[in-house]
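Suppose a colleague, Dr. K., hands you the sequence of a protein chain of 122 amino acids and asks what its three-dimensional shape might be. Before reaching for any lab equipment, you can write down a predicted structure in token form. Begin with the sequence itself:
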Amino acid sequence: MNIIIDRDPDAGIRFAPLQSGAGRSLLESAGYHPDKMDTVILIDNGKVYERSDAVLQLVRYLRGSIRLLRVMVVIPRPARDFIYNVIARRRYGWFGKRTECRVPEPGIKERFLEFSDDNSNE
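The predicted structure, expressed as tokens, is then:
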């Protein structure tokens, strides 16, 4: 999430924690069971993306070299999802894990649908 926040200066991407009412509602409306989520989900213009598809769709909106990940779209989805799963399982060992949440700077809290005045953006 921090990678996204840092590379989305226009604040176009909104977040919904799985535990929140907004997150649960979005997942249920997309046909997912909120208590059995183990991956990233992106809802973009009403279309649902998960795992590597979600990441590749998401990076389209970001700035910086992370956008280069889009070239992975040529890799078949099963292979991309395998890579996604390997990274997801090992990410804390490779990148570390924070024991505390990021302190929201002004404008960050509003990007979370649970705190936003406009819960219609996804």
